[in-house]
């Protein structure tokens, strides 16, 4: 358990596939079905924007939601799916709490 709290765990299966500035060009090139999450957060464990990347015919509407959430031109991360994103967030949160509590 101590190793988990100190961040010495195998994260390969939940890794970030892409990490870049969320521009319209970058967004439109992403494959459908991956999971997009803004780096800008509402809380420690909730991004201001996170959604499964839509099909190309629905991408413009999704881009409008991104702009409305004020996360365009900000750092974002792309994951294989929502479960990988949630697991990545969970581990990140546990590590942050452990550091705050000086467990590590």
Topology overview:
Elements: H1 2-5, E1 18-21, H2 24-29, E2 35-38, E3 41-43, E4 46-47, E5 50-52, H3 59-68, E6 75-79, H4 82-100
Antiparallel strand pairs: 1-6, 2-5, 2-6, 3-4
Q: Could you characterize the architecture of this molecule?
A:
The structure is a single chain. This protein has a four-stranded antiparallel β-sheet. It is 38% helix and 20% strand. The chain is globular. By secondary structure, it is an alpha+beta fold. The chain has one domain. It has helices spanning 2-5, 24-29, 59-68, 82-100; strands at 18-21, 35-38, 41-43, 46-47, 50-52, 75-79.
Number of strands: 6
DSSP strand content: 15-25%
Instruction: Characterize the main sheet.
Output: 4 strands, antiparallel
- Order of strands, main sheet, comes to 1-6-2-5
Give the integer mean of the pLDDT values: 85
Order of helices and strands: HEHEEEEHEH
Poorly predicted segments: none
Range of helix content: 25-40%
Summed up, the helix count is 4
């Amino acid at each position: 358990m101590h190793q988990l709290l100190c961040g010495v765990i195998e994260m390969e299966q939940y890794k970030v596939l892409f990490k870049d500035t969320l521009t319209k060009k970058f967004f439109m090139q992403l494959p459908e079905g991956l999971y997009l999450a803004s780096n800008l957060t509402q809380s420690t464990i909730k991004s201001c924007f996170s959604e499964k990347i839509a099909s190309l015919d629905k991408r413009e509407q999704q881009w409008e939601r991104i702009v409305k959430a004020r996360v365009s031109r900000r750092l974002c991360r792309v994951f294989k799916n929502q479960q990988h994103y949630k697991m990545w967030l969970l581990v990140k949160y546990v590590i942050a709490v452990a550091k705050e509590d000086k467990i590590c």
